[in-house]
Amino acid sequence: MAQLAVKIEGQKRGRCATTAWRRAAAVVLLAGAAFGPAVSGADAPGASVNRETGPTIRLDYSRRESSGNAVAAFMYFVPLITPEPVTVVTSPGSTQQARVTSATRRQSESSFTTTCEFEFTGDGSQQDTFDLARAIQRHERKLKAGGTLRRMLRSITVTGPGQGLVEVTGAVSNRVQTVTQVRLRFNAQGQTSPVSICLCDVRYLEGDFQSVNQIVARVNSLTFRRLPGQPRMEVTVASVKGKGAGNGLWQSFKGSVAGAAVNLFIDPLPVEEVGNRAMLDFGQALAAGATSFTFARASHLVENRP
């Protein structure tokens, strides 16, 4: 079957605040699609590339100026945790870089913690765009019968500079450290997170598959755990707004209130085992003071050719 196109339809204006907030609370229950499709952003400057693996990123633990890492390389876990194809696009002329700038390590007889600061610097953006065609194909009959695919992840974007933390916790047994949790916080030092996700519903309207009710949520944190069974990722958001909504004081206030409400209803999201393992291994590397880390190869990464 030929690949199905997804037509983006702008969210209609004029809905009352109550309706928007209720939709926001439902929308951020990201259905199992979570962070999605494939990429070649690892080939950007600042990434060491091995075709058998993913990119290798530098871990400087220093605020000294360095070449840093391509944001696409630092965020390479995104195409690893999704079962859908992903394409990564870096904005023209982007100067964005990502660096780990410090590490604080503590250990007792039975547990340990490592907290690393990281920063995004420079101007521009990097976006992971998820291909919804396969999901549409799997549910074509349902959609044509009037059904809806809800809360589909459309994209993840890192825009401009920002400050973050990687918080690693784990257990110690026979002097061996085992990471049990890794949390990425994108809003450190009181700064606004530069990471956002776009979600949408998909419906069959006027003879075409269309993306409707688009919502943009600003992500504060992502958490990965070592637990039995299906790996899951926890998400917290700072705000939720309809795509195209303004950034004025009132819009920001409404978005923050919606974000607070949404966090009460977000269940941990299913992710691919290879992606969850990569993030735990990343935490292990930080705890051990490694000077670099190599991601596993993302099989769903789509080459972004000119």
Descriptive keywords:
306 residues; alpha+beta; 7 helices
Description of the molecule:
The chain is α+β, with helices and mostly antiparallel strands. The protein has one domain. Helices cover about 20% and strands about 40% of the residues. It contains 7 helices and 14 strands. It has helices at about 15-25, 70-75, 75-80, 135-140, 140-145, 250-265, 275-290, and strands at about 5-10, 55-60, 85-90, 95-105, 110-120, 125-130, 150-160, 160-175, 175-185, 195-205, 210-225, 230-240, 270, 290-295. The strands form 2 sheets. Strands 1, 3, 4, 5, 6, 7, 8, 9, 10, 11, 12 and 13 form a 12-stranded mixed beta sheet that branches. It has a two-stranded antiparallel ribbon with strand order 2-14. Strand 8 (about 160-175) and strand 9 form a beta hairpin. Helix 1 crosses helix 6 (about 250-265). The longest helix has 16 residues, at about 275-290. It is globular, with a radius of gyration of 19 Å.
